[in-house]
Amino acid sequence: EDPDMKEYLEVIFECDKSKVLKTQYNIFKGFTHFDQQETKKVDLSGIFEHIKSLVDYNEQQFDYVLNWFAQLIQTPHILPHTCLVFISEEGVGKDIFSQFISSVINEEYTMNTEKLDNICGKFNSAIGGKLLITINETNPVESRERIENIKYIITADKVVIEGKYKDAVKASNFCRFMFFSNRLFAFSVDGNGSRRPNIMKSSSKYLSSNIGIEENKKFFDILA
User: Fold this and answer.
1) Pairing of strands 132-135, 158-161
2) Residue of 147, 133, 125 lying closest to 192 (CA atoms)
3) pTM of the model
4) Which of 6, 15, 50, 153 minimizes the number of CB atoms within 10 Å of its CB?
């Protein structure tokens, strides 16, 4: 009976807030660390060094990764139509990078999975309400079999989302993807520039076998 009671007709996930109607409840609330009036100075030299090692100190790729994530924050409603693929030896700290990005853009908007089926299979409700999904230990055989599905979901403005025992719904797609693998040929490339994955081979500089256990622990403790 309260005349000021808020009432909504549907729940949506819409990153372009200008498109949200008064009758829609938007579960996208923006970015906690970037929507505040006051800004705090944060020393990012450690994580920048880590990102550089993940792209084997290629300055062009380093700039690309930073711009890719900056675009996610500044214009989350515009898909880049590319994905990031990191190939490395085990133990270089890909998961730490993923955890850092997740904490920056809010964990509720991210997901880590080892199963491509969670995003490309029949039941893909995991992608709903997500801005970034990381696929760990990408299998070369599975990625080749799913390459058309992957290309589609990277570029599609709308996707059909279906959960078990739930009706399929068509929703706006705002999700980006990162693929991690220890295998050199984990991701097939077809040469289509607009949908081409950006594949980066990581440095092994900070492996304990190269710098010793103590130095390895010191470097990753700073990142943690």
Assistant:
1) unpaired
2) 147
3) 0.85
4) 6
